[in-house]
């Protein structure tokens, strides 16, 4: 009995250096592409274009119902959001939201996600167990906010989640103004002993935020130095936004191998500013992309690439590459359709070129989604 399956299609993807557009056959075994060839296939998808599944590297689960709601600057908006997130102490509400959240990810072709949870440990336990039942690769953690609270209690709840779930969870100090220096040092010490641990946090999203950090952490010359000296920067640290970084701060991010996650939709929605994406890439910074719902107004990655282009006129294949970088979550990624890649992809009808995909497409034009070489046949209504 054959233990692999092969597909013929038109494959469109980027390796970060160039756009690759080819008709070929890929053979998949145990979810991984084990061979590329020209002939003999099991499933013919020649009337479709396959692109890699999207990787949403910065989004907030408890803000799912607030997409496009509220207005103002970041701090004004957060006053509403913190109250909304408190609803997730109700486990039944979290359970109902998880079902719609999971469906929305798949419908939008997002199979990889770095997810900020709520602050409620019981809810996070439920969510991790829920999502691992589905064809998704999700890293999700409890948001840490100990400023004005009980640092020891907050840390022990976080440690408990790390011990239970390890590779499925992350350390998530929400942003520097919400945590104490003691908490950042505890996180940094844990990361030094466990370098495979993911850290998600925000960095330099607004000028007001940066000013607040300077007032709260007077012994550090910059927001980024605070993160480096407390030890939370590593190759598995994903830093949301990073709009206002100096060259010294960019060098710090690069030196530690950390990621900047570009969130163009929310940057515009909250009028936070425009990230100098091309400049950062030229400096050698690793950049992924995030919807950042709920300040990001939807989960449509076609629209997100479009907004990112308007923000900084990158070559389109680089936008596609940024939108599909599953390697930020520790998964092998050679572009999406090379030998050794996982066969996680989206089918688009016809042969659109990269211009059409970025400027004309939206998630409603996704025909089918495959995870590990298997069609996702969930009822997503």
CATH C-level of the largest domain:
Alpha Beta
Q: How many alpha or pi helices?
A: 13
CATH architecture of the largest domain: Alpha-Beta Barrel
**CATH topology descriptor of the largest domain:** TIM Barrel
Q: How many independent structural domains?
A: 2
Structural description of this entry:
It is built from 13 helices and 16 strands. With 381 residues, the protein is of the alpha/beta class. It folds into 2 domains: 5-52 and 333-375, Urease, subunit C, domain 1, CATH 2.30.40.10; 54-329, TIM Barrel. It has a 7-stranded mixed sheet. A 6-stranded parallel sheet has the order 8-9-10-11-12-13. Strand 15 and strand 16 (374-375) form a beta hairpin. Helix 2 packs parallel to helix 3 (121-131) and helix 3 runs parallel beside helix 4 (151-165). The longest helix has 17 residues, at 91-107. The protein is globular and about 65 Å long. The relative contact order is 0.17. The model has no long low-confidence stretch (mean pLDDT 96).
